[in-house]
TrEMBL record:
Pfam entry (one): ATPase-cat_bd
Organism: Cloacibacterium normanense
Record-given protein name: HAD ATPase, P-type, IC family protein
Family annotation (PROSITE patterns): ATPASE_E1_E2 (PS00154)
P-type ATPase A domain ranges (all copies): 308-398
Molecular function per GO: ATP binding; ATP hydrolysis activity; copper ion binding; P-type divalent copper transporter activity
Gene3D superfamilies membership: 3.30.70.100, Calcium-transporting ATPase, cytoplasmic domain N, Calcium-transporting ATPase, cytoplasmic transduction domain A, HAD superfamily/HAD-like
Amino acid sequence: MAENCFHCGQEIDKDRIFFDEKAFCCNGCKSVYEILNANNLGNFYELNKNSGIRPDENLSQFDYLDTPEIFEKVVDFSEGNTSVVTFKIPVIHCSSCIWLLESLQDLNNNIRYSQVNFTKKTLQVSFNQNELPLSELAKFLTNLGYKPVISLETADKKEAAVDRSLTIKVAVAGFAFGNAMMFAFPEYLNTGSSVDFWLEEFAPFFRFLTFLLSIPVVVYSASDYYKSAWFGLKNKIVNIDVPIVLGILVLFFRSVYEIATNYGPGYFDTLCGLLFFMLLGKIFQKRTYSALSYDRDYKSFYPIAVTKVDFGGRQQNILLSDIKIGDRILVRNQEIIPVDAVLINGEGNIDNSFITGESATITKNPGDKIFAGGKQIGSILELEVIKTVNQSYLTQLWNKEAFRKEELGLDTLVNQISKYFTFIILGITLLAGIYWYQIDFEKMFQVVSAILIVACPCALALSTPFTMGHIMRILGRNKMYVKDAHTIEKMAKIDTLVFDKTGTITYNKKANISFEGQEIAEFDLKNIKSLLKNSNHPLSKSLYEFLEVQDEYLPIENFKETAGKGYEATVRGKVYKIGSAKFTNQEAKSLETAVYIERDGEFLGKYIFKNEYRDGLAEMATELKDYKIHVLSGDNSSEEQTLKNLIPNITEMRFSQSPEDKLEYIKHLQDQGKKVAMLGDGLNDAGALKQSNIGIAIADDTNSFTPSSDVIMNGGVLTKLHDYFALTKDAMIIVKLTFGISFLYNVVGLTAAVLGEMSPLFAAILMPLSSISVVAFTSLSTWLRSRKYFKF
């Protein structure tokens, strides 16, 4: 009697290996079983008893991956002892695969994290390359039953080629449908009182031809439906493909019965047409989702600018999309490095936790390569670009699980509806089948098939992502860049707005500045200006523009910044401290915003700022009358009265707030049940941005990309904030209306099918039409609503 391997489920055709009273086909499967049990992951077998594929015994095929040239081409990132690689794993097919592959760090201590992209069938792994070579990682995955596919295409990091199998399946179904209709045509003519002898004589032959044509359609064209239904049932999930498969099989076997007994022509032409139109609908849906995915990958980061510098030292802010290989760029303290580059000047102290998940920093010297996604901790760096920006990669970093917040509402609603939808359809089918069995046995097959085919939650599932995708695209065109669709939903529920003052409701560079103190020599002014450009703080930027001495690239040593207070460093042998009064051991003057300068322990003076608030701030506050408005500032209360005059409906203001104070303030509001949106510069406000329900990083002309934010918004459109929030509320109304359209479609379609007024072929045509109607409605309605707020 044949015996199956306990791990991979395949029949054992060689010597059995017994362990723990279980049979295994090879040492690989036995080893995986031991690893799972040693790490308390034995419930993997409860999730899926047929995991992956049988381990490949020829594991030496991966040794080439350790060749330095190949290794560099395959990995996404490699620094110190940490590397990140993305493998194509075609056999990922269900929830248990995802569960196991995202638990690799529990199976091997040299793996730091692993993340599955189910749609693309890829696995990203961060691992210790010194202890676990890349070839060993590939062998480890293969032993688990998930052999990575590594080819020139995957190594070049190109997008996977378009899957042509669906197109071929549609072509097969279309060919069979057209010819089956032709062969069935005599059947439709040969009815009534006049029966043609020759048509009647050759009817069995034509019926047999339609049967032959239907076989590749049922076996090949419909294969994806069988796979989906089978994988769902294996994991105890009755998905929407289950009733579709039942409808296909009912039509096919009823038709086989009819021609075998010469009872009638069957429904082969209808069956071929049904699958042809259903597959056309699937192509439409795939193209729709691909379009949305493309927009997310390549438009999310357009607001971020980077400072380009020429060989004369002149600086220019340009968009990421304009960066070219060979350009020189500047990266300041706490900024994300947007491209792979070589360090030219400066002391690199790179935090790669954004990529690897580790908080350790790596020291870099001139000539070293620095990977995109790292964050500079310390003085300014001058880099030479060696790769153009890959915005898809940056988007992936922005969306890392570590920076995700709670997911809400609409997805939960759709999941709940979809969960019971199939059972409801199967129940209606059973009752209708019983009824028509008693009334008209022949018509029962048509009714049952029509019900199983016409009922589809596809339009329901498509309504949310397509509507949100349109809204994200509209917001992006108007300089608000949203992380994901969940953010749109959360924005619509916001009732409280918390604004940072400096750099958010004030201009970054516009300020009236005066100096008070001893005269500062040009030598010191050049040192100070060179130090100022290391900081992203709005006051530092304003002061940098204000100083009228020539900017020179001067080496900065021992740079250290204290968030919300100031920074210090050594420039040409002099130690400077720039920041608040407390940071430089001075006494602050009340009602004054100032930057204090100290050199070698000697106080040189202070630059006094009178901030200029953004134009239209008062009008913005009036439009936001339905929201509670709070203002937090790290400065003193010198401009409290000015703010009250500008924002008369302000709820509360707090000054001299540290980054920790801002975070606690957000927590306090949330404890009161408030849905809070925090608007800040993304630097000192990072903690508060992450804590808030929606974190909006305000960017004027700087690389303010931060994983803590859900939205990056151009500062120039801040005063139109009400319009952006209003559009998200409209989006929720549109989604609910599309839910209504989908529900109405299913009610009307099911009613007609149950009453016997709909053929299976017409049901198959209606199925993709429902998705098309949703797409058309959302496209038109979002366009019309957006015209109310924005000009195109």
